[in-house]
Amino acid sequence: MTGKLKVKNGLYYAVINYKDNFNRYKQKWIATGLKERGNKKEAQRILDEELAKFSIDQNDEKEKYAVVEQKIDNDIIFMDYVENYVLSKEKELSPNVFASYKNNLKVMRKFFGNKLKLKDVTFHHIEKYYDYLKNNRGNKNITVKHHAVILSPALRQAYRDDLIPKNPYEFLPYIKREKSVMKYYNKEELEKLFEYTDKTALKLIVRVAAYYGFRRSELIGLKWDAIDFDNKRISIKHKVLCVEGKLYLSDTLKTQASHRTLPLLPDIEKLLLERKQQIEHNKKLFGKSYNHNYDDYVFVDDIGDLFNPDQVTDRFQYILKKNKLRYIRFHDLRHSCASLLVASKVPMKNVQEWLGHSNFNTTADVYSHLDYSSKYESANAIASALSSSEPKEEKTNIEQMSDEDLDEQLEKLQREREERRKRRKQDQAEM
After folding, report:
1. Alpha-carbon separation of residue 156 from 13, 148, 169, 231, 299 (angstroms)
2. 180, part of any domain
3. What integer is the mean pLDDT of 225-232?
4. 324, 343, 369 — which closes off a domain?
5. Is residue 199 domain-shared with residue 303, that is, in the same domain?
6. How many domains does the chain have?
7. In 3D, which of 254, 247, 253 has the Cα closest to residue 294?
8. What pTM was computed for the model?
9. Minimal CA–CA distance to 346: which of 365, 329, 363, 362?
10. Structure-model confidence comparison of residues 348 and 204, the more confident one
11. Does residue 425 surpass a pLDDT of 70?
């Protein structure tokens, strides 16, 4: 341990150089508050005092570290620690996230086993586990990230608690999320879907999902007090989750941006009013057998039971299969809604607000490839820039071109432009 005086912005600082308990070089800067001119002696005195004080603190720290070393020499099993860490977070997590964590723990336990000790874990162990997820289980990076959100904070906590000498996770590279291939229905496919679902109990929920792009939990959590028939508005305020067969009713949404109020579309308003009348009719029809526990909710069955989210998904898939419709998930109705908005040239910011994304980048990343209009504008700009210097050919209707043909045309125009630039340079060099 050494010390010296340093001057910064005209003031003296006492700087102490030392090694921490893990043999890493560190510096500690201590402000003296003394100006450089005429105060060197006083600054040196403060440095000497701080060195003496720090030496005592270091000795105390070594005594504490002796205890820490005993902790590090413990026999805590890695997966026991990770599992206890997840259990300690149960109250902070939503039920579906906690259930997902528990399922991931089973996969981890199978891989790491019951013998690997916490103190022996290296970044190679975690690296091999991620390779196992991708190569043996066929998981994509998005799934790997779901495991990372458990392992990373758990190991960070173990490091903070002095249970391990260093955090092995900090040596792992960032996990990049692949761009998923999004499935969605176009306008004609949606109309065909409505033709079949309109004959079933899913009529209203499928329509609302396609028109508004609400998440499944938001749909089933829709309450009558969130629908303002007078001012023609519909709001998202609640959600319903199904976790391990149990329903969870909550006023806490995925993000703050999920709380949103949108115009009540005439087609949906008409269906909602019809549904309201049907519910009142069912209450009279079934009498005491009717379940009034969910009177506040829109999506209940004929006897008043709340729609089960998993059963909605299963029923939706059954309708697709029975009528030989192209496979999509129920959640893909949300993507179908977004694709129609983008195709109608609705600004991406407006799409973000309609869907309730908390981050504009999320909307842009997922749906930017659908924004064909920007490609048309680029193609037209290049065509216009070159049309004055080149012989005019028969015009192509760009808006009728496929996305692949459009990309090919853009590349061709750019190549031709580059060749002309090279020829001009050669001509200038010969002159």
Report:
1. 33, 12, 8, 51, 43
2. no
3. 93
4. 369
5. yes
6. 4
7. 247
8. 0.60
9. 363
10. 204
11. no
